[in-house]
Every structure is written in C-alpha cells, then in structure tokens.
Amino acid sequence: MKEIARKDLQNYIENEKERMLDELFALLRIPSISAVSAHRDDMRRMADALVAKLLASGADRACVMETGGHPAVMAEKMLDPALPTVLVYGHYDVQPVEPLELWKNPPFDPIVRKTDLHPEGAILARGANDDKGQMYMHVLAFEYMMRSGTLPCNVKFLIEGEEEAGSSHLDAFVRDHARELACDVVLVSDTTMAGKDQPSVMTGLRGLSYFEVTVKGPSRDLHSGHFGGAVVNPCTALCEMIAALHDEAGRIAIPHFYDDVQEVSPQERQQMNALPLDMERYKANVGVSEVNGEEGYNTRERATIRPALDINGIWGGYTGEGAKTILPAQAHAKISIRLVPNQDPEKVNLAFVEHFKSLAPRGVEVEVVPTQGAYPYVTPVSGRAYQAAAEALTEVYGRPTVPVRGGGSIGVVPMFEKYLGRKTILMGFGLDTDAIHSPNENYSLAQFYRGIESIVLFYRNFCRK
C-alpha cells in the first residue's frame, strides 16, 4: 500500500469539498429523530443511505442490523487479520427540533451561513454537528484512503440510531456482536474541541442518571377557591422538593452522594485550566449574566470534572391561555444527574429514589422512574492511539494538542471497554458554540474539512507506531 501523503490528501479534499458537502446535506435532509415514533421510517431510510455509501466507498460488507429498536449500521474493510483494526463509532439519529420558531431556517433544510465566528461558513441544520457531520467525516476519510490505495489497516463501522434516546438496546447489541466488533482501538467523533484553533482530545466523559418524577395529590384537579390552602398542592410540593436537592454551597444534597467521586489531581486541574476561558464570551454565548455552581470550583471544572444535577423539565396544572383557577392533581419533572469517574449510575439511582421520596410532604404520593443511564469514562494520555490522534491534530492545526475532559455522556464508550476490552479515542471537532440539541445547530465548514484530514492522518500515525 502507498504511504499517506498530506499534500495529496489536502488536494483531494479541496477538489472534492463541494461533492462532500452535497452528500452530507442529503443526509441532513432526512429527519432521523429517534425519540419520535412518527420518524421510524426516516430512521430506516437513514440507515439504508449509510449502507449504500459505505459499500460505494469500498467496504467489503455493510448492512442494517436489527437491535430491538431503531436499526444500527455495521460495515467493515478487512485487509489482513495481522494488521491493526480501528472501529469507528457514530450515530445517525438526531435530537427533536422544538421550538421550531427559534430556527433561522427549517432544521432539515441545511444551508451554509457565514458568521463572525465562521467567516468561511457554517452548516446550519439539525445534526450538522451531532452527529451526522462528525460521523460522516469518518466515512469520507475511509473513502479517500480506499480511492488512493493508502488504507493502512482494517476498519470497522458501528453507526447506531438510538444515541439521542439513550442507546437502550446497544448494550445487548455490543455484547452479542463482540466478535464482529473486535478491534484494537475505537475512534469516535461526537465531542468538542477546546477551540476552533486549539486542537484537543477528550480524555474523559461524565456519566448519566436520568429520572422522571411524578407527585400526586388529590384524585382530580380541584377548585382553588374551594380547596386552596386546605389541600397540599402537588406543584408546590414538587418545587420544594426540587429546591432541597442542592445545599447553599451548590453541592448535591443526596446523602453520601460524593463518597465515590474520584477527585482530579491538582496537576490535572492545573493542566486543564491552562487553556484560556473568556468568561464574558462564555456568558454571552449561553445568554446569561452570571454563572454559578459548586463552591471551590471554576466554571470549566463544574461543567466537566464535577457532578451536576439539573431539572430538564417541570410541568403541572393549567398552562394554556388565560386563567384557570385550579389546584392540580399532579406535577411532573424530568431530572438528570451527570456523574464523574468512579460513580456507579445504578447506585446513584437507588440513592436518588430513596432521598427524593423522603423529601415529600405529607399528603402526596411520589413516583420516581429511572429511565436511562451511562457510566463515566477516562482514557489515558500515554497510549499509542492517543498519541496518534494528538500528533495528527497538531499537524493539521499547527498548535500542540491538549487533553481535556468533557461534561457530556456517550453511553457506548464504557460498553466498548466492558465487552471489547478496548479504549476509545474521543477525537471530536465540534465547538461549544455549535448549539447542539438547540435551535440553529451548526457546524463549521473549516472543522468539517480539517476533521477529514485529521482522521486520515490518525490512521497513518496509528499504524506507524
């Protein structure tokens, strides 16, 4: 096989960039929303499109795999069993798009928009970053290596369709297909970089526990004039219970919650805080006047290496137009807890359910249902795969690559370690300003094309070592 030459790669990307973008746009037009049952046919259409593209790019085998939920896509190109094998993971499903009125263009009608941050242009569409844009970089990188005869190792793909809905069927799928997924390293682009010109590799992820809670009071909605002040209001009770979940120092007030938290060393805290963080720009980006959180930690640390409990939604009673004077029968909330290394989501689930029910006043009943979870994850910076990724990014971006921690969760990453015995390299190219999960999700064209280049160079570096 030929050696990967960076200049040839750059010329190829420059000559093919419009075609690459057109292909991505075709995928972005498919409304593959995994959480909405009305889009089941769109999920299948998206999976079929990926199979066709992977086969056309040179895969020996690519197929739609049933999971018990939305299908997954598996593909492979096996050159020689003696060569290293890279497993690429991504997901083709996307988040719901509401509120629609806040989008600058229809979310499944992708456009390129130039901005002050992205003068070269950014793709505006649901899934532009998370994860169709980032996932498709790997398909295009594979296509280049096949066309140029430079693929230096075996490649496998696992692209799922339920990541945004909790990957509820993936644990069993990875377990049952561990032999087909066997590899030397897992490569994922579903995370962010430290900055548009500051390359980084994410070395840690937070885990997740998620709950739906219901507080029940009277058997029906009551007239607030007849019963107000005499019967416990479930909305009031729920608000009081939620308010008690944090103490005055911003810590999560569940007994023994922090017992298993793995503290980050002073050296790692110093390293991660060496990267500049413009707080005024940060606040402007998220639209807040002030930041807050756990005392003793700065904003970056609170969002990455510390646990966090958030209310994702709360509702109850009458919320329509005008007034309706009732005392509601029920109140509801969705609550997430982000976990850090050494915390077990199953153990946290039990502790939360017990504690939250203990906060209920007399006169109400409380239901707490854990709905999804993910384990936290850390990967070492001393490994061969991390070094291959860091060197590739440094070459493309012209600046030293730094290790960073991420605040989100990718549930499949701990599964790969559990069932395949392999670490994952989180080589993400998104930016904090990309508005994933929000209206006007976007992805820089520069990041898209530099991502393709960096991924190809990762293969070169990984197979040299």
- How much of the sequence lies in strands comes to 15-25%
- By CATH, the superfamily of the largest domain comes out as Zn peptidases
Low-confidence stretches: none
Write down the overall mean pLDDT: 96
Oligomer: single chain
Helix content bin: 25-40%
How widely separated are the two ends? 17 Å
| CATH topology-level name of the largest domain | Aminopeptidase
Q: Number of DSSP strands?
A: 18
What's the architecture of the largest domain, going by CATH?
3-Layer(aba) Sandwich
Structural class: alpha+beta
CATH class of the largest domain: Alpha Beta
Strand order of the largest sheet: 1-2-6-3-7-17
Q: Report the sheet with the most strands, covering strand number, pairing sense and barrel closure.
A: 6 strands, mixed
Basic shape: globular
Global Rg: 24 Å
In short:
The chain is of the alpha+beta class and 465 residues long. The chain has 13 helices and 18 strands. The strands form 5 sheets. A 6-stranded mixed sheet has the order 1-2-6-3-7-17, with helices on both faces.
Overview of this protein structure:
By secondary structure, the protein is α+β, with helices and mostly antiparallel strands. The chain has helices at residues 6-28, 40-57, 132-148, 170-176, 224-227, 234-243, 266-272, 279-286, 299-302, 345-358, 384-397, 412-420, 445-464, and strands spanning 61-65, 72-77, 85-91, 111-113, 122-124, 154-160, 185-188, 200-205, 207-216, 222-223, 308-316, 326-327, 330-339, 365-374, 377-378, 402-405, 424-426, 442-444. Helices cover 33% and strands 21% of the residues. A six-stranded mixed beta sheet has the order 1-2-6-3-7-17, sandwiched between helices. A four-stranded antiparallel beta sheet has the order 11-13-9-14, with helices on one face. The chain has a three-stranded antiparallel beta sheet with strand order 4-5-18. α1 packs across α3 (132-148) and α4 packs parallel to α12. The mean pLDDT is 96.
